[in-house]
Amino acid sequence: VAEGEPGEGREPFELPRFWDALGQTFQVTSQEATKLSLAFSRPPLPSAEDCRKLCEDVQNAILAVATVYYWLPKGQGTTLRKMVRDATTEVVEGMIQLTDTILSAPAESLSQEQLISTGGVWDACEQVSNLPRDNQAAVVSALTACLGVVKDAVEEMEHALVEGQDPYGDIMEDEELGFRGNRDTYWSEADRQLLSSCMGLMKASKACLKKGLGAVKTHGKADSPEHIAQLDDIADIANEISPSVDELALSMYPPVNPLAVRLNAAKLASVLKKVLEIAKTSHVCPPSEEGWVQFLNGAVDHNMNKIKNFTQGQL
Fold first, then answer.
1. Where are the alpha helices (H) located in the chain, listed in sequence order?
2. Which residues, including other chains, have CB under 8 Å from residue 92's CB and lie 6 or more apart?
3. Taking residues 124-141, what's their average pLDDT?
4. Residue 131 backbone dihedrals phi, psi, to 5 degrees
């Protein structure tokens, strides 16, 4: 499940039929986990014949889950497929863990681990009802997750940059460390000027994701191979924003190396320009959406130019 590729089926693929079948297989697996756990919850233990039957039922349920997952062709969207694959993998891993727990636990009583493992399979099986139903919904979900992470990073950096605040105050309050009036723990005035443009770039990242998410929600369609592929392209490049924001944020803590900051800012700016270009040329950006694309392109250039000016003397 984790590494295999789907077979492109001969029959025409029907998304509603796929979801019905996947929901049923997840439900059956949840029931089999309950039966297996109950059988080993108190003496007497099941007979060899009963064990064989239980194992067969569990194995068949898991094979059915994997088989239905394999029905979903790549053409329905790689973002959707990855989310379904992750959910399927979790069910399979949950059942493996439950079986291991039963094999390693003393037979006399229902252990806490066994209860937790059984609940784990139930939770994994219930996830099917929360999965996005097509690639547009999957990309909305992926962009929402990215936006949440970037928002947190921006807020954390804003908090650290509050005038006069010691960025290491929370971890270096011990008086025995002595006086810390050095470049290793404080930002100079020049640092703060450079970092304000970096914050501008981080805020542009948040705005890119927010506006992109709105465009995908409003105009995104999963009704043709071309539209589905365009949505995947947007999700793939948007996934690069959060790690790039994190790298820039880490390089902004003192002692500041202006060249490292410039390098990380340039990486983030490059990702943002790609996001805007891919969005602009896709179906999610009709003429009504072009204004924000243009505005954010300008914002990225403006902040990057300021960062270059501040660091020019370091080259």
1. 15-39, 48-71, 78-104, 112-126, 135-161, 189-219, 225-238, 241-251, 258-280, 290-311
2. 1, 62, 65, 66
3. 97
4. -70, 145
Question: Structure pTM?
Answer: 0.89
Q: Could you check whether 15-130 and 135-166+181-311 share the same CATH topology?
A: no
pLDDT for residue 151 is more than 60:
yes
d(CA 3, CA 85): 9
Name the least confident of 8-12, 54-58, 208-212, 256-260: 8-12
Mean pLDDT of 285-312: 96
- Range 135-166+181-311: architecture per CATH: Up-down Bundle (1.20)
Does residue 6 register a pLDDT over 80? no
* CATH architecture of the region 15-130: Up-down Bundle (1.20)
CA angle 73, 227, 65 (to 5 degrees): 25
Cβ atoms of residues 104 and 42 within 8 Å: no
CB 213 within 8 A of CB 140: yes
CA distances from 69 to 8, 73, 79, 88, 237 (A): 12, 9, 14, 7, 25
The Cα 227–Cα 138 span in angstroms is 13
Using the Cα atoms of residue 303, residue 306, residue 308 and residue 314 in order, give the sign of their dihedral. Answer: negative
Q: What is the CA radius of gyration of the chain?
A: 26
Whole-number pLDDT of residue 185: 72
- The arithmetic mean of pLDDT across residues 71-88, rounded, is 95
Report the pLDDT value the prediction gives residue 214, as an integer from 0 to 100: 98
Q: Which amino acid is at 197?
A: S
Can you say how many angstroms the Cα of residue 279 is from the centroid of all Cα atoms in its chain? 20
Please give the average per-residue pLDDT across 92-100, as a whole number.
96
Q: Where are the domains of the chain?
A: 15-130, 135-166+181-311
